[in-house]
Specification:
heterodimer; A: 1264 residues; mainly alpha; two-stranded antiparallel sheet; 69% helix; flat; B: 185 residues; alpha/beta; six-stranded mixed β-sheet; globular
Chain lengths: 1264, 185
């Protein structure tokens, strides 16, 4: 099992499948290009590039197809050049298109892979050089910006890469250079062929380019200059580059040129032979070491990386390559036979655990020290590499680590061991995280190459374990995840490099550390890396204890989610005694004091789950360690410790473990001690409060014996936290209160009632602090029957009062209302269950809970559904509505005598997705089998109210409403006859619990079907208009579309077969909309959307002439609309109204006259914006049906409307006013004097006029 | 770059091998390459220059570089030594006259520093022709036993025309490289 690749494999599979399809596209494209000789539209090329780019992460999938793609493209390129005759005649645009595709392949698959498929005939060389020169020259004229889009640099890169393989031809360069054959131009004294000179010239220029051509020209130069026949050119180039690097150039050139040149040198030293380069090393080294200390290097990680590479390769020139005979190898076969035996002896000795020093001295005796004269330069380079390991940039550290591995491989044993020693010295607490990371990488590199001898392992392993736990706090966070990852890499490399017998002992030490990281690291990559290393170790070990089981449990995926790693994987691993101590220690010593709060909580949770393995250890040692730390000066530590104590106690309780009396006393003392230390105050107080609540809850659950004084302290503490404005703390406090009451205040006594019920009632009624009220409301909900009983009715009344809006924003606290709704629901449940179970004893009032719920509470809850209060946070009423929906659901179940699990009474915040687990209805129904509990009206109201919420505009509310609706309808214990049309409704909402009601496209098309039932229409429409006519565009489209679809499809059908409705008219709809409109009267939140909906229905042709409304309905609706417009000052409303009026004007009958009149009035409205809009509407109306409106005066009327400037001053259009009223034969209303004679009023009016005008201009500017 | 990236890279690298085919001209290098790649071997002209063939062999991707063996080209062989994992030296077993030449070239090649770690497979090709020497004889003539003790090598008879022996040879080469590629990677 190989987990990191498992993920890869599935991805592989997916891409491999899709590649079958795309491969055809790719091949077809290539065939097309070849056939058309490259003349294919650039769009096609782009398409192909997009396909290729998809494989950036999985390029190996493309590799089987590369040859079939690249060869034809390159052939086409060759063809074009050949056909054109001369390079000058080549159509560069085709070349660029071809090269762009190839360059995409280069970026995806890497140039080393792609270059193999390029043609490499000698005859191509000269042509390609010329082509490159042509592209190069062209650039000088085109701008930088243009270069990006036309594929210029892609072409250059591709040509450079092509040249890099062309220059590998095994012929003398001079023999392919036509310039030499022509003898036209032979440089006297130069043995470098002109062709080569041309290449070098172009490349040198590219070396100062910032783009990718720099790297490519480096590749080309390194290949060209290391040819056996290029010694002269190589020497020239190195001289040139030394000069370029040492002279001071203009900064703007240097910044690109220096890395370019260093890069080429590094590439040359990689490819070139030692014989060729050895004598150039001294000057190059001098320049490089000088550069390494320059400011340019300190600024550029790239340059430092290249310098590290260069220096390392320079030093290799001084060290002949060898297979280090002293190297450790576990491989069998001829290699092992050929190798000197001492290493294998070393191995066996380490195995039997001999003293390290002894072994080493033995080695030195047995291995004949090879003669190696190490030049000074090598030592200096090693020094540089060790410095590079500590570099602040990862790329540099990587290169340095690789360098250390390569150089060490060519050293003698003693020298190599010195290097290993120096690397190990970097693991100092004083060194930064960079040094730790770098030296981990170096160790891994050395191990991979077998250069870290087994004798060193026992020193290295403890260091690596330290590195695995490396985590240094820096302010509010910590660094070190890269170190831990690299340490896992070392373990992985060890596992691969050394034989299983040799590693066995060491791996036993590493394994617990690795598993600790795998389970408990904060970072996912570290968890996975540690697991991968562990897996590699297990794989190589064969039968490691529980290895396979753990590998199965702790894999790439299971560790992906932190909480799963903490609470499942770790718990599984902890069952094995070998690993349990290190896991527990990690939690106790590190993770519960971690800076990340979430991690501390998870650590406590994980601790809780581990208790079961060793109860007495946890009850003893663990608690002893934790308890003093609850008072730590470090916030993280005391918070974590408090949570951890709580978690351990909780587990002990669950395991029915009884603490000793001593221990109980200590545990009971924690909270008072925390309070005494005043740890609630200042920074972190809030965090501590929540933790203390959790602790109290667990203490109470365990029934720890409390001295009376302590009991009071705890209760006060809970009460204090109930008042806290932070809702999370309140939630914790309520949970604590419940446990506390259950543990210490029952059976109820008068003082207990006074301390709870009466107290919270008083706070809810009288406390001016809203936070205290919120807490009290929740607390009341949490009280058990025994405490509630004496004053349950009063509690309910108080909660009902708290739910009601007082109409005064200062007094209305949304959270209080939410909590009151929840509290009320819980209290109802507590009381009604008592009634079901015959424990309810009627008090002096004869009221009975179920009756109160039916007659009083449901009304309050329905009322809460209409809570649309807003404040600066937006629609805060929606929280109340959400809570009310849940309350309605639960109270409905009560009325149906359905019991739901009681445990969830308080924690109402967590939405319960699944249908609640329903118990059998209690047999106590005979208490009141009068049947009077359920009334049809109420069932309708429940479903209707929820339906309304389910079609409004907030996704979250719709989701809650939709799923509540679904739950109620699907509940088989809810009597059929209580809800009208229950069967049909069930079908409409469906029983699919995965339906996403928040998605408009899901919910609206379903719910509009409820329009079929006249009972539900008012509810549905009053909600629907909010969505359809609301401001949200997409929501409006979807919901409006659903409504209209339904009306056009279903309704004609319904009208046809319904016997009472003779005509298929939509009278009912107009009627209902009228009701909705009057229902919302005066509330613009509802009126404007309703008007908009009506308008939309007209525009979309639902209310059309073909389905005429009855005169009366139309008149009714019109008068409602006119009523809303009367005295209206809201422009948006006026505009919608105008639009509706113009629709009415196109209808037959009396409404036409009324609406025309009103339109004319609006035409001379005070607001210019309205006037202009109205004029537009009238104009259109006249064009459409002028004759019905004004007889033969159509043209005249059109002219007047068209010619008048409607947004000018109102005074200027008096003449037009009279004329139009005349034309329409409408009695003009008495003209209001624009400037009233009373001077007092006039100012007011003028001001308001100004204000409106500016308002309208503002609206105009906003493009309304 | 974390451990998971490294694992991914290493796995990929471990699957790639670079193999250099060299030998005197007319030894049959290109024929061998074409034969194992399943191409037509009936008409093959001398390689002027070099060829690269990428193919899948077992779980490895082999990049085979086949370089012409003419005398003039040999001095350029060193263009191709970089990062070579395996070396295939092809001998024309029937060309007894040039075996001395062959031996000198081979031993010269093995002195190259860049090829120091590469596994060496010697194909005694053209075993199907009458009068060819068998691999043991070739080994003797080529002085293979005096080779550096660190070198992994193997000599096998083969016939590029019939295909005999080719698979054994590549099997040995690939498994030998595979057993150590991780260490040197």
């Amino acid at each position: 099992m190989d987990h990191p690749t498992e993920d890869e494999d599935s991805q592989d599979l997916r891409l491999a499948r899709s590649l079958v399809q795309e491969a055809k596209i790719l091949h077809d494209f290539v065939g097309l290009v070849k056939e058309a000789n490259g003349e294919v539209d650039v769009v096609e090329f782009r398409k192909i590039q997009t396909i290729i780019e998809k494989y950036q992460e999985q390029c190996q999938l493309l590799e089987p197809h590369l040859e079939a793609i690249i060869s034809p493209l390159m052939e086409t390129l060759q063809n074009r050049v050949a056909e054109a005759g001369t390079v000058e005649a080549v159509d560069l645009s085709v070349v660029k298109k071809l090269c762009s595709v190839i360059h995409t392949l280069i970026t995806v698959c890497g140039y080393k892979t792609v270059v193999k498929f390029f043609p490499h005939q000698a005859c191509d060389l000269e042509v390609t050089v010329t082509l490159l020169e042509r592209c190069h020259q062209e650039v000088t004229v085109s701008s930088v910006l243009k270069e990006e889009s036309t594929g210029d640099w892609e072409t250059k890169c591709t040509l450079l890469l092509w040249l890099s393989i062309l220059v590998l031809i095994p012929f003398d360069m001079a023999s392919v250079d036509t310039a030499l054959v022509d003898c036209s131009e032979i440089h006297a004294g130069s043995t470098v062929p002109p062709l080569v000179q041309r290449i070098i010239k172009v490349c040198k220029e590219y070396l100062q380019s910032p783009g990718p051509v720099r790297e490519m020209s480096g590749v080309l130069l390194s290949r060209l200059l290391t040819r056996p026949d290029m010694r002269h050119a190589l020497r020239d180039f190195i001289d040139w580059s030394n000069e370029a690097l040492s002279t001071t150039l203009d900064e703007s050139i240097k910044i690109f040129l220096v890395p370019g040149v260093v890069g080429v040198l590094a590439a040359i030293f990689k490819v070139g032979g030692r014989d060729m380069l050895l004598d150039t090393t001294i000057p190059v080294w001098q320049v490089a070491s000088h550069l390494a200390t320059s400011s340019a290097a300190s600024r550029s990680p790239l340059l430092r990386k290249l310098l590290i590479k260069l220096m390392q390769r320079v030093s290799l020139m001084h060290l002949p390559p060898r297979i280090a005979t002293w190297r450790y190898t576990q491989r069998s076969g001829s290699l092992a036979l050929n190798l000197a035996s001492p290493t294998s002896k070393t191995e066996s000795r380490t195995e039997i655990g001999m003293d390290l020093k002894d072994t080493q001295s033995h080695d030195e005796v047995e291995i004949p020290e090879e003669e190696l004269d190490v030049p000074e330069i090598v030592e200096e380079v090693i020094g540089q590499l060790l410095t590079g390991l500590r570099d602040k940039d990862t790329v540099v550290r990587w290169s340095a680590a690789k360098g250390v591995g390569l150089v060490t491989g060519r050293l003698t044993l003693t020298l190599a061991d010195e290097v290993v020693g120096s690397v190990l010295e970097l693991f100092q607490p004083t060194e930064g995280d960079g040094a730790w990371h770098g030296s981990c990488l170096a160790l891994a590199e050395l191990a991979r190459r077998g250069l870290l001898l087994p004798s060193r392992l026992s020193t290295v392993v403890p260091v690596i374990i330290k590195a695995l736990h490396y985590d240094v706090r820096k302010g509010p966070h910590s660094v070190g995840s890269h170190v831990r990852d690299a340490a896992a890499y070392v373990c992985w490399a060890f596992a691969r490099a050394y034989s299983s017998t040799l590693m066995k002992n060491h791996f036993q030490k590493l394994a617990p550390a690795l598993l600790t990281i795998a389970c408990y690291d904060r970072e996912v990559n570290c968890r996975r890396a540690a697991a991968a290393a562990f897996q590699e170790g297990v794989g190589r070990q064969g039968d490691f204890e529980h290895g396979i089981d753990i590998v199965n449990a702790a894999d790439y995926f299971s560790l992906g989610i932190r909480s799963h790693a903490y609470c499942a994987v770790a718990v599984y691993i902890a069952q094995f005694e070998e690993y349990r101590p290190s896991l527990i220690d990690e939690l106790l010593n590190v993770k519960i004091s971690h800076w990340d709060k979430g991690l501390r909580e998870l650590a406590a949770e994980s601790l809780n789950l581990l208790v079961k393995y060793d109860v007495s250890y946890f009850a003893g040692h663990v608690l002893d360690t934790l308890i003093p730390r609850t008072l730590s000066a470090d916030l993280c530590e005391r918070h974590g410790a408090t949570l951890a104590v709580a978690a351990v106690i909780r587990a002990l309780h669950e395991l029915n473990f009884k603490l000793s009396a001593d221990k109980e006393r200590v545990v009971a003392g924690i909270v008072p001690a925390i309070e005494k230390a005043r740890l609630y105050r200042g920074k972190g107080g809030e965090i501590m409060r929540a933790a203390v609540c959790v602790l109290i809850e667990c203490t109470a659950n365990l029934r720890v014996l409390l001295p009376p004084k302590v009991e009071k302290v705890l209760h006060d503490s809970v009460d204090e936290n109930l008042k806290h404005p932070n809702s999370d703390i309140q939630a914790c406090a309520v949970a604590a209160l419940k446990a506390f009451i259950a543990g210490y205040l029952l059976p109820a006594s008068a003082p207990a009632i006074a301390r709870t019920t009466s107290k919270y009632l008083q706070i809810l009624k009288n406390d001016p602090n809203p936070a205290a009220q919120r807490g009290a409301a929740l607390a009341l909900g949490a009280l058990p029957y025994d405490l509630l009983h004496p004053s349950w009715k009063e509690v309910m009344d108080a909660l009902c009062a708290a739910i009601r809006l007082k109409g005064n924003p200062a007094d209305d606290d949304a959270e209080t209302r939410v909590n009151a709704v929840r509290g009320l629901t819980s209290v109802s449940e507590t009381m009604c269950y008592a009634e079901f179970e015959h424990v309810f004893i009627p008090g002096e009032t004869s009221a009975r809970p179920l009756i109160v719920v039916r007659d009083q509470l449901m009304k309050v809850l329905f009322h809460a559904l209409d809570d649309y209060a807003v404040d600066n946070r937006g629609d805060v009423g929606s929280w109340v509505r959400e809570a009310a929906m849940e309350g309605i659901e639960r109270c409905s179940y009560l009325l149906c005598r359905i019991q739901t699990p009681r445990g969830k009474v308080v924690k109402a915040e967590t939405p319960r997705r699944k249908v609640v687990n329903i118990e059998e209805p209690t047999t106590g129904s005979e208490i009141m089998r009068e049947g009077c509990l359920l009334t049809d009206a109420m069932g309708l109201q429940v479903i209707g109210g929820l339906t309304k919420q389910a079609v409004e505009k907030i996704d979250r509310v719709r989701d809650a409403a939709g799923s509540t609706l679904q739950r109620i309808l699907l509940n088989s214990h809810v009597p059929e006859d209580w809800i009208p049309h229950k069967q049909e409704l069930k079908e409409i909402v469906s029983d699919d619990s995965t339906l996403n009601w928040a998605a408009p496209a899901v919910s609206f098309p379903r719910l509009v079907k409820l329009l079929k039932f006249s009972e539900y229409r008012p509810f549905l429409l009053s909600g629907l208009v909010i969505a359809v006519g609301g401001l949200a565009d997409s929501l409006g489209k979807v919901s409006g579309g659903a409504l209209i679809d339904y009306l056009t499809k279903e309704c004609s059908h319904m009208g046809a077969d319904s016997s009472e409705d003779v005509s298929p008219s939509l009278d009912w709809l107009a009627l209902e909309l009228g009701h909705v409109l009057s229902g919302y009267a005066g509330v613009d939140r509802g009126v404007i959307p309703t008007l908009k909906t009506i308008d939309i229905l007209f525009v979309r042709g639902v209310f059309s002439a073909s389905q005429p409304l009855s005169e009366q309905t139309a008149g009714n609706l019109l008068s409602l609309v006119r009523h809303e417009l009367k005295g209206c000052r809201d422009v948006a409303k006026l505009l919608v109204g105008t639009s509706i009026l113009s629709h009415f004007a196109s209808l037959e009958g009396a409404v036409r006259k009324q609406s025309t009149e009103q339109l004319l009035n609006l035409l001379f409205h005070r607001y210019p914006k309205v006037r202009r809009f109205c004029a537009e509407q009238l104009y259109l109306l006249l064009l459409q049906m002028g004759e019905q409106l004004v007889g033969e005066n159509v043209d005249e009327a059109l002219e007047v409307i068209g010619e008048t400037c409607w947004d000018g001053p109102l005074d200027d259009i008096n003449a037009e006013r009279d004329q139009l009223y005349g034309l329409f034969q409408v009695e003009p209303p008495p003209r209001q004097p624009l400037v009233p004679s009373k001077s007092k009023n006039s100012r007011l009016v003028v001001r308001s006029e100004d204000e409106n005008e500016s308002y309208s201009s503002l609206v105009d500017a906003a493009g309304y | 770059m974390g451990l998971l990236t490294i694992i991914r890279k290493v796995k990929r690298k471990e699957k790639e091998m670079r193999i250099l085919m060299v030998g005197l001209d007319n030894a049959g290098k290109t024929t061998i390459v074409k034969r194992i790649n399943g191409e037509d071997t009936s008409r093959i002209s001398p390689t002027l220059g070099f060829n690269i063939k990428t193919m899948q062999f077992k779980r490895y991707r082999l990049n085979i570089w086949d370089v012409g063996g003419q005398k003039t080209l040999r001095s350029y062989w060193r263009n191709y030594y970089e990062q070579t994992d395996g070396l295939v030296w092809v001998v024309d077993s029937s060309d007894t006259r040039r075996l001395q030449d062959c031996r000198d070239e081979l031993h010269g090649l093995l002195k190259e520093e860049k090829l120091i770690g590469a596994s060496l497979l010697i194909f005694a090709n053209k075993q199907d022709l009458k009068g060819s020497l068998n691999p043991e004889e070739i080994a003797k003539v080529l002085d293979l036993h005096v080779m550096d003790k660190d070198r992994h090598w193997q000599i096998l008879g083969c016939s590029a025309v019939t295909g005999e022996g080719l698979l054994d040879g590549f099997n040995w080469l690939v498994s030998d490289i595979g057993s150590r590629i991780y260490m040197l990677g």
